[in-house]
Amino acid sequence: MTSPGIADGPELLREAEAFVATLDGLYGLYLDATSGFHLNADRMLSAQKASRASSKLGIEQQDQGEIFIGRGAPTDPTNVVLHKVTQAQYKARNSRGGNNEVRLGQLLVVLIYEFWETEHRANLSKALGMSGPKDLQVMLMGDLRLLRHDVIHRRGIVSRETVKGLMVLTGFTIDSHLVLNEDQVESLVRSVKAEVDNLVKGAGLPDPEHRKIWRVT
Collapsing DSSP states into helix, strand and coil, what is residue 10? Predict the structure, then answer.
């Protein structure tokens, strides 16, 4: 990753911080949503336990009950059911490591790459004095491009081409589901921020502002 031009220091720092702000927003969305998922599962289980005494139905029996989401009153014959799920499925998808958390991790991969490719890559390459966005090559973002393709076009199944092409985010197996746990998501966000720092430091500039909050004085 090299810069053939002369970096505009103040502009580079602004664009670096802008990308970090985007990352912080996306990671905040992930953290808030996953916390909400886990609370949903806990609340459902708590409600089932509270209902067990009065309804005489055990947890396993209640798990078969369905939750309906729709438009209109349940007694209205013209109502429209938009979504239904059993209580067991609701708890499973909201549980730690459940489908909601997996899908959100995949969505984070897609969103990080899309914001990079449609906005921040061009702005950073310009601030670095490059002739265009394609001159700014970051291997980690190339990995996200491959994983993004599999999320969108292969329903999150990692392809042979992706496994062979990954340079930084290794450890995936062919035809496996793309699953990032909380620690892996955190590591991904930290790694992307580190790449931004490398751009700034590579241009001979001081550490970006966002790094200062981690310093202990």
Answer: helix
Output the pTM of the full model. 0.89
Torsion angles phi and psi, residue 80, rounded to 5: -120, 120
Asked whether residue 82 is domain-assigned, the answer is yes
Instruction: Measure the CA angle with vertex 91, ends 26 and 80; round to 5°.
Output: 85
Q: How far apart are CA 65 and CA 86, in angstroms?
A: 5
The two tokens of residue 180 are 């990032």
State pLDDT tens for residues 86-124.
999 999 999 999 999 999 999 999 999 999 999 999 999
Rg (CA), the chain: 23
pLDDT in tens, 128-144: 999 999 999 999 999 99
Q: Considering the domain boundaries, does residue 207 fall inside one?
A: no
Question: 208 lies in a domain?
Answer: no
CA distances from 203 to 126, 158, 161, 200 (A): 13, 35, 33, 5
Q: Give the chain's end-to-end CA distance (angstroms, integer).
A: 33
Domain count, the chain: 1
Residue 75 structural domain: 1-202
pLDDT band at residue 203, thresholds of 50, 70 and 90?
confident
Q: Are 110 and 178 in contact (CB under 8 A)?
A: no
Residue 123's DSSP bridge partners are: none
